[in-house]
Automatic annotation (TrEMBL):
The keyword Chaperone does not apply. Gene3D superfamilies: Medium-chain alcohol dehydrogenases, catalytic domain (3.90.180.10), NAD(P)-binding Rossmann-like Domain (3.40.50.720). PROSITE patterns: QOR_ZETA_CRYSTAL. It comes from the Bacteria. This is NADPH:quinone reductase-like Zn-dependent oxidoreductase. It comes from Paenibacillus favisporus. Keywords: NADP, Oxidoreductase.
Amino acid sequence: MKSIVIERAGGTEVLKVREMPDLAPRYGEMIVDVAYAGVGLVDILIRKGGFTELFPFPVIPGLEVSGFVRSIGDGVEGFRIGQPVASMKLLELGGYATQARVTPQLTVPLDSLEGDLDMAEAAASIVNLTTAYFAVKQVNRIRQGDTVLVHAAAGGLGSFLGQIAKRFGAGKVLGTVGSPDKIKLAAPLGYDELLLRSDFVSEVKRIAGVQGVDAVFDPVGGETRARSLELLRPLGQIVALGNASGGELAHQSNEIWLGNQSIAGFNLGAYAMYDPVGVGQAAREALQLLASREVRSEVHGIYPMEDASEAHRLLESGQTTGKLVLQMG
């Protein structure tokens, strides 16, 4: 099989295509012939050495794949050879390869969904869509008519958060983006209004009034998260979904206590270690929404695996919306 291996931290030049031995399934696993692999911010952070304590070099990046079941290990039921699937490799990575080792709990049989779901869409969507679905439905437990603010509205996760919030009853969904160009890019993604993140506090106050918003979904972190607190209604909640800004601010517990507010965190990979069956079920339900076109996905571009460096460069440029995908097979 072919894999893209990172042997040391660095720029896009460290993404190297390597020939490796074919995989064989262990107990409770399957091997998938990978058709497509999603490209995400976490792959860039891993490439730069951000998670070496979890994923030491050499490492094959990639959290999400789609493809066809190649072989099935003992103890696995409910799948068949040749079946089209999408899978999340949250716990061990390895998606940038022509073969991937997957666990059945985190794998969705695509032929079990009602509707039509393209395999590139499935690979591009499964992690971010499942994250958005879980964050809105299970973590925030959104209520009918809530006013919601989503940061990084044009990104891979943000492209789903606004749609899922609307799907589960939000009355008004506001989104922030980092540049004027991204307002146009995020416009088809279910947002009632899109705002520049540089001036979002005053704009949200103008739109939502003194009562503020019920929920903030924030993959950005840092100063953006701190400034979002002043926009929350009493009993409002910030759901922390990442820290793309790299900034880290301590929140005073007295401020949260006296403001009757809460900050919740959700990380899909960490939660999958605790409840892989629940995460897999959420993935099936989320992908069904996509297959039945109740939500839409944004695939910004599809690149051959040999052009993984170009995909990383484009994602780092901040000029994309939705998701980038590598074609592996």
